[in-house]
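FIELD: query
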Amino acid sequence: MNEHLLPAIRSMKDMEKFFKLDYKRCVLLDTHIGHLQGILNQMKKNDKEVMLHIDLIKGLSNDEAAVEYIIQQFRPHGVISTKTKVIRRAKKLNTLTTLRVFILDSTALSRSIELIKQADPDFVEVLPGVAAKVIKEISEKTGKRIIAGGLINTEEEIQLAIESGAKYITTSDTEIW
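FIELD: result
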């Protein structure tokens, strides 16, 4: 088990595997609003903490009202979103927040640094997570804890992201959990 890894759950099969491992936290991706209560009940029963990716909950808008509803109704450990307004609302509700940013080029990097400063999340998830140079720059320019996600599927890539300043690595590749 790698202490820096945050398993990203995409299916019931992934969740079953996650429960058999020693990880305390996970990221929940691609779920349906109708399944959320049951999934979170199982997580609680197995003493696991969940970071919910608000943007990927089917049947739910990804706006301030949605995050408020999710936090009040389900009390996740934290939320993840690409939307600064969602992050700001979640922070006001005393929930751990992660702003997810996609860095495609230098313009996206500059824009993301500004958004991070505006939203003031607890964590920033940088995608793709194999972008070591970007992880280092965002960490230095914002002072935020970094989560590297996307395209990471080897131990070497995990180590490089950590050496570049990532605190955690998210991956849905169950082979490296």
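FIELD: remark
The chain has a mean pLDDT of 97.
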